[in-house]
């Protein structure tokens, strides 16, 4: 036995020695999903946590010519958790605070840690520790708290034993997610919260741990002031391109929303007595910083976002929201320098438990968090009676491919980028003239919406961005995000039985392919063609609502489809169309028995039109049809054959056909390919020589329907022909 003790003791001494020298290595990373996330230490700023109201003035006095202190923020961690032991219960009324101290320049790492040590001798201090900079340049503070998630509820004894060993206090567990506990560093501890979180995780005894960072500036707006709601009806305002909007007026012809559908604006808190919002406010809301009701107004941002979603329509005031007869819920958070992961998580959990259908988040942080991830998963799984809340996030305004967290964390979230009035990804050189910012983009981007020079509600009087009750140029992905949240509310207004995933799919599949971008089929993007800068395209309120509606028995279509627009329609029995599909437009019509294209119907050259017999199946443009029924019946059809010709260079006849089609060309044909109405390959040329002026296409074996023949000429021209097989 003695020999074993002698062998172990040197190892213990070695561990203690390494710990002393390794503390700095332990506090420049934390664990997220089992991987280390490394941070850069901000050697200009120190994080300070202290206890007691009587200490506030003494810490304020630290401010001088060389040292600047931030606003002192009360830490509400004790008040917002459920204490489960007598000590924690007896200490719930104790108040602690957080602040940061910034020097006028960066220090050497040695001097920086000496400075931290000097603050540890300040009376009533709980923790002095580093502050951080993330890889994307975001700033983080560090509170004296950290979070531990148990693997199961029976592990609470293990947690208490480890907490006692490490001399930390257990404040209690999260009231919405009881496996998550908040622990606090005391004055006697030589380690800070990020070091302790790492030590707890490395035991292997716990599911997850992370420090309670203090997020900085996570709102995603940019500036303010201008006029006219081009997002709803773009007539060329601000130098924009007419028609590049979300087709709002057509959507309002179907629905302006439903009072039973509630959108939570998770932001600064909205001004609930604003004359253009008051009629649509539901309940008293929730403040995630304090963990209490009602919500408070912590800044201007939330009122601006709320107006874009749900400002009242036709009340002779200001503006109209996208879903002007749906309801708004206010959830408030600071969005500045003092939001912890636990606080941010609580807003999601409160939202789904209090009736939110959609949650709009015009903010994003820098450091990912497992406790926020868990709260979002709860909301997706449990909200709306198990159908899940629709959660919408702003992409960010840094003009790069680093989509802000939490939007980047989960493919079930809708990530929204900002678009200019000229159908461009908002960027420093886009037509709007705001050259200081651009919308984030990349593989996690789902959709874009108008996001610059957006009129919306402002806090009343002189409290907000302007001196009136409205601001005219709210912008950033902060203004794009609530547009999509409003469209989600409209979708649920016409079909509240949809799951969150079905709402996301409708928004993505109905998007307009605007701008000069190339949209293409992309792995992991099943809902249509997609582009790295624009996602699936510009959100289309009208098409989204059409897709969401319960299927009608019979449908008459007379609404023209313009360039960049997509028209997807379904009917149980018959569709009758007399509209025009212009070049660049896309239409897909699905009926149960027949589709009649009557006089006035025309599919212009360069358009895409598909029709098939399936009925109300939830079919979308990209899906395949296995139906072998007769697809289209014709009555005085105009396929605008002249427009489909290129100076009559190529002719196909007979068209419609029952079998063999002859192709004649005044220029030599090098090849041709025939695709069906779904874009699937059907036939290709088998020319005996390299080129020919005439060929035949046998369609006897093909089912009835609409086909597109692509003909390549020897001069490089490509000619497209629509062929109808009866």
TrEMBL record:
GO molecular function list: serine-type endopeptidase activity
Gene3D superfamilies membership: Peptidase S8/S53 domain
UniProt-listed GO biological process terms: protein processing
Peptidase S8/S53 domain residues: 261-537
Gene Ontology annotations for the cellular component aspect, listed alphabetically: membrane
SUPFAM superfamilies xrefs: Subtilisin-like
CDD domains: Peptidases_S8_15
Any Pfam family the entry gives: Por_Secre_tail
Residues annotated as the enzyme's active site: 267, 301, 478
InterPro entries: GCX_COOH, Pep_S8_PrcA, Peptidase_S8/S53_dom, Peptidase_S8/S53_dom_sf, Peptidase_S8_His-AS, Peptidase_S8_Ser-AS, Peptidase_S8_subtilisin-rel, Secre_tail
Name of this chain's protein: Peptidase S8/S53 domain-containing protein
Species name: Aquimarina atlantica
